[in-house]
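User: Sequence recovery, please. Input:
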């Protein structure tokens, strides 16, 4: 029994909106600290985190360079009004990593970046239908929610979603249907995750992405890749688009960008971002914390650290350890994985959440996911050791024998 956790959870239920945290007795543990892959709860229990907390802390929790950056003592800036140097350096760096010639806008959450991409498409192309995919998760703020699939997110807000969207199966066969739609109606944008994260690591078929690129060129439709989950070496490449050797027109980035803080980006090829025009004194899309200098400094250090540790090689290694470990232990489970992104598909509705709780009680943090909650996911940080992966696979094998 986690006594302190259950006391705090009772207090949480009194002050937090009820649909936010699922609470049952002393579940979930309330955490008080995290360093590297270790997380401590308020009752003194230690957990090994295999999720980088939603794929964010890819260098482990609380890396020391954040303290160095905090010591510089400059934290908040003036967004669109008076730029901080760090913002300029970070935009330059992201643009260069994308291949040069990209422009963008820095925002906070993933949903903000997705919305900025959709707004850019609207400005470039004019209003029309958004093509999105079954299983897609783009965030829950209204703009992003327009393209997020799944009734549980949409049902109560359907009437106020700003962008009309049509969802297609995440497969090649959808191309001819999207082509048909493009002939009948104006499509404002196509938005896709090259690898669907929250749906349980579903990798888009190459033929679907290549076909979408051709179709979108043919009809002049902006193609948006949502790489909030997949960006920054998680797939062994800087971006998942590099696996497919494809260039979208707009890309949404977040999570691993700052490896700890709410910092996201909507980036686009110059001619797309130029659809915003030039400022006449006041930005038309801006937030108080846009391009926060402290977050930008941390992001610059994060990107430097990824290069230093050759994060792409770590991702390859982690993939090998998992694939070899599954074979060595004879673990028979439907597994989808690439780099550090791995989904174990139990094929049974809700089993991902049951497994998540089981692992948590044994000191492991994993993620329940999948369209029907049938998947257990891990996104270990680049700094994970092979022994930890081996121990996890031993536990997975035990879980499957239950
Ligand atoms: C692919 C993708 N897009 C968008 C989002 C939304 O990001 P945020 O929760 O930061 O708004 C997520 C979050 O998991 C995501 O995985």
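Assistant: Recovered sequence (402 residues):
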């Amino acid at each position: 029994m986690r006594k302190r956790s259950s006391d705090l959870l009772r207090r949480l239920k009194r002050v937090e909106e009820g649909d936010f945290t699922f609470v049952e007795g002393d579940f979930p543990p309330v955490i008080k600290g995290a360093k590297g892959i270790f997380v401590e709860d308020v009752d003194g229990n230690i957990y090994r985190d295999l999720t980088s907390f939603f794929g964010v802390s890819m260098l482990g929790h609380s890396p020391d360079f954040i303290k160095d950056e905090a010591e510089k003592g400059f934290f908040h800036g003036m967004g669109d009004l008076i730029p901080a140097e760090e913002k300029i350096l970070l935009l330059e760096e992201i643009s260069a990593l994308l291949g040069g010639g990209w422009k963008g806008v820095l925002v906070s959450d993933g949903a903000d970046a997705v919305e900025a991409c959709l707004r850019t498409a609207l400005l470039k192309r004019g209003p029309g239908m958004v093509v999105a995919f079954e299983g897609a998760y783009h965030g829950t703020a209204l703009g992003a929610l327009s393209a997020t699939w799944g009734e549980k997110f949409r049902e109560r807000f359907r009437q106020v979603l700003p962008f009309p969207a049509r969802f297609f199966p995440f497969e090649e066969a959808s191309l001819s249907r999207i082509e048909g739609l493009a002939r009948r109606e104006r499509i404002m944008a196509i938005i896709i995750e090259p690898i669907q994260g929250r749906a349980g690591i579903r990798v888009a078929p190459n033929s679907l992405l290549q076909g979408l690129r051709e179709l979108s060129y043919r009809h002049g439709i902006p193609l948006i890749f949502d790489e909030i989950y997949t960006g920054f070496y998680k797939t062994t490449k800087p971006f998942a688009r590099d696996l497919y050797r494809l260039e979208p027109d707009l890309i949404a980035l977040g999570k691993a960008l700052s490896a700890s803080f709410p910092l996201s980006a909507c980036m686009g090829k110059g001619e797309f971002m130029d659809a915003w025009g030039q400022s006449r004194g006041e930005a038309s899309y801006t937030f108080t914390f846009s391009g926060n200098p402290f977050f930008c400094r941390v992001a610059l250090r994060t990107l430097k650290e990824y290069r230093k540790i050759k994060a792409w090689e770590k991702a390859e290694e982690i993939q090998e350890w998992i694939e070899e470990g599954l074979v060595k232990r004879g673990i028979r489970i439907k597994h989808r994985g690439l780099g550090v992104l791995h989904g174990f598909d139990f094929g049974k509705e809700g089993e991902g959440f049951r497994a998540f709780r089981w692992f948590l009680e044994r000191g492991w943090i994993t993620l329940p996911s999948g369209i029907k909650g049938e998947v257990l996911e891990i996104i270990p940080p680049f700094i994970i050791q092979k022994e930890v992966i081996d121990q996890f696979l031993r536990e997975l094998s035990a879980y499957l024998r239950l």
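The radius of gyration is 21 Å.
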